[in-house]
Design brief:
The chain is mainly alpha-helical. The protein has helices at 7-11, 14-23, 27-40, 49-62, 70-79, 89-93, 96-103, and strands at 66-67, 107-109, 115-117. The protein has 7 helices and 3 strands; from the N terminus they run ααααβαααββ. A 3-stranded antiparallel sheet has the order 1-3-2. Helix 2 (14-23) packs parallel to helix 4 (49-62) and helix 3 packs across helix 4.
Length: 119
């Protein structure tokens, strides 16, 4: 079985592109598969087509929640806060930076900036 040193090297092959084209519905999914390969298969210094297929299965089976980058994730977190009114005094004094730090404990950020939520 042929192995590849980097995820990029694996994904540039025609076979990988065929696997991706047959299994993924959007370009963003390819970014997520890259991130899953990096995050879940990081312990080895090589990758295979089986790893690619497993990463695609992980994305489809687990319905991984992902965000395009850390800012998009923080925007999602901010949207979940309900201050019960637009002019709430709480909102003025709310420490968003500390809140984002707490939110960041539940994610993994890949080198391509895709954020995978671990919940």
């Amino acid at each position: 079985m042929k192995t590849y040193k980097t995820i990029e090297e694996l994904l540039e092959t025609k076979k990988a592109q065929k696997i991706i084209d047959e299994n993924l519905s959007s370009y963003n999914d390819e970014d997520v598969v890259y991130a899953v390969l990096e995050v879940n298969y990081w312990s080895r210094d090589w990758r295979t087509f089986d790893d690619l297929e497993n990463a695609i299965d992980d994305v489809e089976r687990w319905k991984i929640t992902y965000f395009s980058d850390l800012d998009a994730y923080h925007d999602y977190c901010d949207d979940s806060i309900d201050f019960r009114g637009n002019d709430s005094i709480l909102e003025r004094y709310f420490d968003y930076e500390a809140y984002h730090d707490d939110c960041d404990y539940d994610i993994t950020e890949a080198s391509n900036w895709v954020v995978i939520a671990n919940w």
